[in-house]
Amino acid sequence: MDPLTLTFLLGRLGRLTDSMTTDICADAATTPAEIRVLAYLVHAPERTARPSDVARFAVQTSGGLTATLGRLESAGLIKRRPDPTDGRGKLIVLSGDGRRLHDAVITRLTAATAAAVGDLDLDDVGIHVRDLVIALERAAGLPTSAGFVANPLGVHA
To answer: Under CATH, which architecture does the 3-140 domain have?
Structure first.
């Protein structure tokens, strides 16, 4: 496959998955950006992270992340606490309500994705998609998500 066709197909894949995610999030009165933040916190040690780490994972600008964190905090889905290692810094902490919203949206997203790709060999597809993501992250100068596993325990929703 030529690089231009691959670029267009990857763009379409991104728009299709974004559309599915947006629809599922809208049904839960949230946004994909908010779910990405909650997902990062679910997998973070002690369900806590620095905003800069969340921004890199969510691929969101600092201004966009500030707005997202404000909405999540107002809804009681996260809390911001002082960072004990940085007097001016904050830590983002996942709340119980944030975990419940994350779980509900992720359950629906997992089911929708499984229904859409059920006939594919997901192990084979996963290898190639991960390789593509890693290559594009490298080209963009982003940290790698090579070891990222959304469901580290392998529990199916």
So the answer is: Orthogonal Bundle (1.10)
